[in-house]
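Final report, results section. Input specification for complex C-07:
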Amino acid sequence: MHIPDGYLGPQTYLPAFAAMAGVWAVGLARLKRTLRLRQVPLLALGAAFSFVIMLFNVPIPGGTSGHAVGTVLVAILFGPWAATVVVSLAIIVQAFLFGDGGILAIGANCLNMAVVCAFVGWGAYRLIAGRAPVASPRHWVGGAVGGYLGLVAAAVAAGVELGLQPRLAHNADGQALYCPFGLSLTVPAMALGHLLVFGFVEAAVTGLVVAYFQRTAPEMLAAAAPARPPVGLFPRLTVGLGLLVLLAPLGVILPAHFHAGPAWGEWSAAEVRQHGAAYVPSGLQAAEAHGWHAPLPDYALPDHPVLRNLPSCALGAVGLALLLLLMARPWARKEAPDVPPVVAD
Amino acid sequence: MSLPSWLIERTPPVPDAPPPVQPRRNAVRRAMSGLAGLLAELLANDALASQPGLLQEVDARAKVLGVVGLIVVATLLTALPALAGAYVLCLLLAVASHVPLRRLARAWLAVPLFSAGIMLPALLNVVTPGHAICILWGQGDTGVVSITDAGVAVAARFVLRTAVCVSLALLLAATTPSARLFRGLRALGLPRLFVLLLGMMQRYLTVFIRAAEEIHLAKISRAITVGTVRQEQAWVAAGMGALLRRTQALGQSVYLAMVARGYTGEVYLLDDARWGVTEWVFLAALTACGAALLLWH
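Structure output:
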C-alpha cells in the first residue's frame, strides 16, 4: 500500500501534495476549533499508536499472518479529521525514518491511507452504527465493514494513481517513464489482494477492537460518536446543489457515450439540412449570418469529445452561483435588522 | 568406605536425543521480531548519525533541502546514464559519510529488488512493445512472447530510479539524529504544529514499541501453545485495545507535564543556529550535481 519514490511522476505527486496541503489545512483548522489543549499530545501519541499497531501480526486462516493498517480504527476512535492528521504523521515518519513509502510519495500515500481509507471506513461505520446504543452489535459490524471498505477503497485509489502513470508520462517513443502498467492491470492487481485477503484482516481487527471497547471501555466509543448539530436549510441546499453540479458532466458524457445527436429541434441551419428538410428558413440563415455569436458555441472549448464541455459547465455553474449571490444581497441586507442587537451590560 | 551399589551400577547409555524441533514461528513471534527490528533500526540510525562524516557535519535543514531536492531530480531523470550517475553520487555520499555500503545494499532488498520483481512483466512485448532481443515463446522475428529492448529500458530506468530515491532517503535518515531530522522539515515549509507533533511522536515511538514488545512478551511467557485463529485474532484486538488505553493515559500525563513547564497552546521550537558556510557550500555542490545530472540527458 505504501507507494515508494520513483513509481509516480511529478504530474501525480505534485497534485497529490497540493490536495493534501488543503486537507491538512482544513483538518488542522477543524481540530483547532474542536480540540482541547490536552488533546494535542494525544494526537502525537495517537500517531505513534497507529504506527505501532501496523506491526501487530494478525493470524489468517491457513497458517500465515498479515498486518492491519488500522486507519479506520483510528478514525472511529479519534474522528476522521484527527485520523487524517494522525495517520499522515505516521506516514511521514515511516517515509523519513524507515524508508517505508517514498518521501515524494507522501502526498499520494496520505491521500490513499489517511483520507480515502479514513473517510470511507468511518462513513461506512457511522452509516451502520447510526445512533444505536454503544452495546449494539451494529457498532462492531460497522467497524468490520468500515475496515474492509476503507482498505479496499484506499487500494483502488493507489491502483488508479499507479495506473495513470503511462498516460501521464511517457517519452517520444511512447515508453512509460514511471509505473509502466495501465489502469487495466494496476487496479485489479491492487484491488484483488485487498478484496480477497487483506480487507478481511482489516475487517477482523477493526471489528474485534471495537467489540473489545464495547465490552471493556464503552465510554471511549460513546465519546468518539459525533454530536450531530441540527443542519440548517442553507447548508442542506448547498450540499444538494453541489451534488447536482458534480453530476452535471453526466449530461455531457452520456450523450457522447451513446453517440446521441443534438437535442431535437435545437438545430443549426446545417443540421436542418442534414435532417433532410425541404428548405432552411431564411430567418434562421439570416440570424446565423448576422446575429449574435456566443463566445462558447456548443459549450465547446478545445477539441475533445467529452472534456471540451467540462470547462464550460464549470464556468456556467460558478457564474450562476455568483449571479445568484449578487441578486440575493439586497434581501440579505433587508433581513439584517431583524436580528436582535447584542446589548452590552 | 565403599561407594553405594546404585552409584557403581552402570546405567544403560542414553539414546541420542532427537534433533531439536524448530518451533514454528507464530504471529506473536513474528510481530516481536518486527518490533525489535524497528527499535534496532532507530538506534542504529542515531548511532551512525553521531559519528563524524560529510553529511553528519551539515545542518539538518540544509540536508533535508539538498537530499529531497536530489530525489526530485532523480524523478525527473529519464536517461539511464544520468540515473547511473545519480546512484554513483549516492555511493560517494555514503562513503564520505562513513555509512557502511552493506547498509545501502540492504536498502536494495527493501524496495528496488521488489520493484525489479514487479517489473518482470514490463520486459515483455505484451506490456512494452519494441524490438525483440530474446524470444521466450513462439517463432519469427518477434515471437508470441519476447523480451524487448524498450521493455529492458523501461524496467532498468524504473529500478535504477527507485534505488537512487531509496538510497538518498536512507542516507538522510542514517546521518541525521531523528529529533533534528523533523526540525529540519521546517525548511520544507511544514507548519510548526506538525513539526512539534512529529517530534513528540518520534520521541514516544520507542516507548510504544517497548510497550507493544511487553504485550507480546507477556503472551509468549504465559501461553504454552498457539490458540485457534479466532482466539489469536481476539488476543491481537485486545493487545491493540490495551495499547490504546495506555496511549490515552500517557497522553494525559504528557499534557500535565507540558502544562507544568508552561505550555499554553503556543508552539515554540528549538532552532539550531548552525547554518553557516558549510551549509551553503553543501547546497551549492548538490545543486551543481543536480543541474549536471539534469543537463546530462
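Chain B touches chain A through 88 residues (CB under 8 Å). The two ends of chain B are 97 Å apart (CA to CA). This concludes the modelling results for the funded period.
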